[in-house]
Design goal:
- The protein is mainly beta.
- It has one domain: Hexapeptide repeat proteins (UDP N-Acetylglucosamine Acyltransferase, domain 1, 3 Solenoid).
- The chain has one helix and 28 strands.
- Strand 27 and strand 28 form a beta hairpin.
- The longest helix is centred in the middle third of the chain and has 4 residues.
- The termini are far apart.
- The mean pLDDT is 91.
């Protein structure tokens, strides 16, 4: 369905700031103190904010113009979603997190508080990020060619990133992988593996061999009907 241009004013949303054109955004909830379609200082061929239905944007958060965001967006406070991002449905992003420009984010992604997602990062469906995750995109900061080679990581579907993880540029985190808290990911991570440490190194078990120590279940992760085989030598 083609989205229609809607004109939002402070008369309809007292205390909300509107900086540009918005398409879609049916039944949106914008808290006072939020800023919608903020005009970026960068030149954009298309500065319109395209926002799906039922968005919830909490006080202090800023959505820049020039992005495409799916249905059921929900933000915490102090979130910044920059321009030229393409974001799927059911995106949850919590307090004081920044999604920089030029990112592609899938459906059902959850990003917790105090995270930084660098430009040109790709995040597939069903990814979870715990608080404090930092993503880098520049292999040689200050180099005269930085703008030409700058690229964030690719995080495949269903990966789970622990608290205070740092992910370096251009790496690929495989589908379903689990990254332990405090890790620094410097190399590609195989699908359905567990890595931890600085630099992050693979465990000898797959995520399906992990045990639950809370007693609620025997194993926190169970294999889907069809899954990519873990690397040779991994305990399954």
């Amino acid at each position: 369905m083609q989205q229609t241009t809607r004109f939002y004013t402070q008369a309809n949303y007292p205390g909300v700031f509107f900086g540009g054109e918005i398409k879609g955004a049916e039944t949106a909830q914008f808290d006072p103190g939020s800023y919608i379609a903020y005009p970026t200082g960068r030149h954009l061929a298309d500065p319109v904010l395209r926002l799906g239905a039922r968005a919830t944007v909490r006080a202090g958060s800023i959505l820049y113009g020039g992005s495409v965001i799916g249905a059921d967006l929900e933000t915490g406070h102090g979130v910044v979603l920059r321009e030229q991002n393409v974001i799927g449905d059911h995106f949850n992003v919590w307090n004081n997190t920044t999604i920089d420009y030029g990112c592609v984010i899938g459906n059902n992604v959850k990003i917790h508080t105090n995270c930084y997602i660098a430009q040109f990062t790709q995040i597939e469906d069903d990814v979870f990020m715990a608080p404090g995750v930092t993503i880098a995109n520049d292999p040689h900061p200050g180099c005269q060619f930085s703008s030409q080679c700058m690229r964030g990581p690719t995080i495949k579907a269903g990966a789970k990133i622990g608290v205070n993880v740092t992910i370096l540029p251009m790496v690929t985190i495989g589908e379903g992988a689990v990254i332990g808290s405090g890790s620094v990911v410097t190399k590609d991570v195989e699908p359905y593996t567990v890595v931890f440490g600085n630099p992050a190194r693979p465990s000898k078990i797959s995520i399906y061999a992990m045990r639950c120590w809370t007693g609620h279940t025997d194993r926190p992760y169970r294999p889907p009907e069809v899954a990519v085989s873990p690397p040779p030598g991994t305990i399954y």
